[in-house]
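Pipeline run #58 for the internal structure catalog. This entry was flagged by the ingest filter as a single-chain record with no existing model, so it goes straight to prediction. Upstream metadata was stripped on purpose; only the residue string is passed forward. Reviewer on rotation: M.T. Logging verbosity set to normal.
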Amino acid sequence: MWFKNATVFQLTRTNYFEQFSLEKSVKKNAFVPCGKTDIKRFGFVSVLPETEDLIKGFDNNNYMFLRVQLEEKVILPDAMQRPLTERIAQIEQSEFRKVTKREKDQLKEDIIFSLLPTAQSKYIFTCLYIDVKNGLIVIDTKKREKAEDILALLRKSIGLLPVTDFINTEALQTVLKGWISAPQGIDINFHVGQEIKIVGTGAYINKATFVNQDLYDEDLQQFMGSFDYKIKRLKVEFKDMFSFLFTQDGFITQLEWIDMIDYRVNIESEALVQSMEAEMVLFTQSMSDFFNGLKTMGIVLHVEKEIFEGRDLEYSLIAESA
């Protein structure tokens, strides 16, 4: 249950998930397999193997894990292109005219619909958890669109989900560039790794990527100090617990857990569930420590929260200072 990525959202209302039964709500959008004419289906599935729980709570339900499954029919390009080409040629030869774009699009839809009943499915699982106490939603993805789809599924289940981004990307850029130019200002819990990608701004539009290199090398420092740039991504370590890439969009990707042992091999299903539950506890403790560390960096959007009273409320965002 160790995430590989973390896209984080901040709830803008205090004690929001304490106002209703989340487990009862998500059951309305439990996963249902694709029918013969469905191209994809999306919904909640059991969090742990051989269980039926759509939500797994820990620490008096201060942390709640969920898992989403996407089933999508796979239609190979050649399976669609051949009949499409044949139908277009047939129309053009019989009617002595070119097929319009609108007609081509309709032909594609008709062919896809005819292929769906026999198409194979691919399945994609995505885990997420809700930090109820701190009002965070953490999704194991590095794709914004995928994260938004999962938030939309939660909204569909509970009716309203007042969230905003957790990371202030402008402040993040300032802090990370400060770390590169002045390492003495780095928080004691963080350590800059040996990977960076930068993109020049203004007249300098060149890109440069450095991997497995000391970023404080004198020549490299002189190079990066010679023009204005933005950091596209930077490798960072946290407390000797894990390393990750910080992206310019505020995504946390390529999480690599240090000294993590895979002890799930060849163990009984009951023991497997217990080991995964233990992982969840350790994981949430580690991530809470990490998110608190981010707050000290001054890159987190601080939300002026309101207590939820069942109605729309105004809220404001300010950059939280260290």
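catalog note: The mean pLDDT is 85.
catalog note: Helices lie at 22-26, 77-95, 101-115, 144-158, 169-181, 218-224, 269-297.
status: ready for reviewer M.T.
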